[in-house]
Amino acid sequence: MKRLLLALVAIMLPLVAAPPAxxxxxVRETSITDNSTLSAAPENFTVTFSVATGLANVTLTNxxxxxxxxxxxxxxxxxxxxxxxxxxxxxxxxxxxxRTMAHDGHVMPGAIHFTVAD
Length: 118
Hints:
By secondary structure, the protein is an alpha+beta fold. It has a single domain, classed as Immunoglobulin-like (Sandwich), CATH 2.60.40.1220.
């Protein structure tokens, strides 16, 4: 009976310990808070993740859904933090969206909505 219990514990322990290792990258911090209103247009957007990840792409759109050109190419290396320079933004609503790729190849989207006040 004791051997059976020890065998069950030995089998179950890796399964119980695995979920954190299998968890996907999470956004830890952004330089712009989602749904915020800013008194001045930001010069950069920084996003920090819980683990090193690849940034597959990033886009900036206005309230009409039109893309606004970014002078930024995501690096090939995986890292925990990315800083994207933003163009001069007029007052209005914007969305900055991204897709990351984890080490396991899983693609995860993210977005921040913000408004630049008059």
